[in-house]
Amino acid sequence: xxxxxxxxxxxxxxxxxxxxxxxxxxxxxxxxxxxxxxxxxxxxxxxxxxxxxxxxxxxxxxxxxxxxxxxxxxxxxxxxxxxxxxxxxxxxxxxxxxxxxxxxxxxxxxxxxxxxxxxxxxxxxxxxxxxxxxxxxxxxxxxxxxxxxxxxxxxxxxxxxxxxxxxxxxxxx
Length: 173
Fold this sequence. Notes:
The protein contains seven helices and no strands. The protein is an all-alpha fold. The longest helix is centred in the middle third of the chain and has 27 residues, at 72-98. Mean pLDDT is 81; it is low at 169-173.
């Protein structure tokens, strides 16, 4: 369906991934150029859109992850996706802090989806990021602020705490 909208329909898996990635990257760049987040006021829809577009990059990486054992030229693409996914996850974690400036009622109801994709990335790829526990804590804090009015946030926070408890024997606070 997306392919029909943009008029080009690549048939190879990697061509399709790169095509989707280029469209997504272009849209993220346009969004970041048009909207800067001043510290005193945050637009909830711009915040959500920015988080969701970065979460889509994380999801593209999640899709190509099983193909990491492909030939060398595809491995270069995989490593590039890995770097860009780390950057996207860091942006989401940074934007999670901006959620504290919003009333929990102004946050988009699907914001926790972006947060959990980011948290899963950080928990899976701990070795890529030195400050993953700090960023994971920021994500948990954002979910904690939303949990009283958003069941997704409540469920995802429980999932993160359960996963961290199982893997390390301690919970994030």
